[in-house]
Amino acid sequence: MNETTALLNIGSLVTNDPELGEGLLGLITDAALVIEEGRVSWVGRSSDVTPTTAVIDLEGRAVLPGFVDSHAHLMFAGDRADEFAARMSGERYAAGGIRRTVAATRAATDEQLAENLWRLAAELRRSGVTTFETKSGYGLTTIDEARALGIASSVTQETTYLGAHVVPAEFEGRPDDYVELVAGAMLDSCAPHSKWIDVFCDRGAFDVDQARTVLLAGVAAGLVPRLHANQLQHGGGVQLAVEVDAASADHCTYLDDLDIEALAASNTVATLLPGAEFSTRSPYPDARRLLDAGATIALATDCNPGSSYTTSMSLMIAIAVRDMRMTPDEAAWSATLGGAKALRRSDIGRLSVGSRADIVSLNAPSHIHLAYRPGVDLIHRVWQAPLTPKVAA
Ligand SMILES: [Zn+2]
């Protein structure tokens, strides 16, 4: 899409720029959008657009910024369908199940890992995701973590080093020795392929002091922190995320008033992952309380083979609206600009002049249908600017 292209006859356009249109989403009806060299060059009413050579008639469809999936675990092999079936029969989810995927991932070839990643990346794109983050965390040796991140960095710039996912079996009873490796030699090998550093700070994984050690080592190596926090029980993870100025505290299922106040007063986005609660039949996070306190929320898939094996941002939006009391506008915002903020990106998640031309059209007249028509694939078309745009921001 290098020539100038005009998208015309857009029924409703989510710009996420309140200066361009109505409300939180900056909504424009009967809208048009012009794209040049992978960037948005004009946004407005269809009646005001200057005719260009290439024209696409959207015939009244809704258009949004491409979804930004700011939390996924795509570097793995195998699946755990049997574990899901057992859990749905009454067993409780515990973090230890990750070790099964670790064994399968270590046994996989580079080609198998890459093919699984490409398959999931293609699924994400078909479901309207134009930017996704992915973590390591199923290798848990220096060589396996570094190879996962090397492969991941060939398809996304949003790569996260998650050596501190769980303590691997060979370090059973010696978690501090493993933390030393994660914050030392493993970090040295992984940092060149990573933008972010993350820790699973929760029951059955790493405590707050261990998580702080890993995150600060990552910061010293030039990575930016994000954190799995407060998914399985209340703990100090969210406070740690705010303390280290993490871009995002992810899950946020068990929060007290102090956690909510801390998030609202910080630059740390609360990334909610309702696919995990859905697939583990757990209580959803209290999105309404977070929003009412002034916190910023991102919605993401948490795509992983254990607790949330979905690539559907539309499903996340539907759950957020139905069960987490977010409005359809808030959920659409959190799945686009909220995700961009969780990745500290200003070039995606919105459709205003200069934004990347990452665009989704729906087989529906408005974004409300994403929640109103749950389980229906409404994605009409996905436009994605090249990974390295020709025109600088
Ligand atoms: Zn996760």
Automatic annotation (TrEMBL):
Annotated ranges, domain Amidohydrolase: 55-78
Organism: freshwater metagenome
Pfam families assigned to the protein according to its UniProt record, in alphabetical order: Amidohydro_1, Amidohydro_3
Signal sequence region: none
InterPro entries listed in its UniProt record: Amidohydro-rel, Amidohydro_3, HutI, Metal-dep_hydrolase_composite, Metal_Hydrolase
Protein keywords: Cytoplasm, Histidine metabolism, Hydrolase, Iron, Metal-binding, Zinc
GO biological process, one term: L-histidine catabolic process to glutamate and formamide
EC number assigned by the record: 3.5.2.7
Protein's pathway: Amino-acid degradation
The protein's name in its UniProt record: imidazolonepropionase
PANTHER family to which the protein is assigned, alphabetical: IMIDAZOLONEPROPIONASE, IMIDAZOLONEPROPIONASE-RELATED
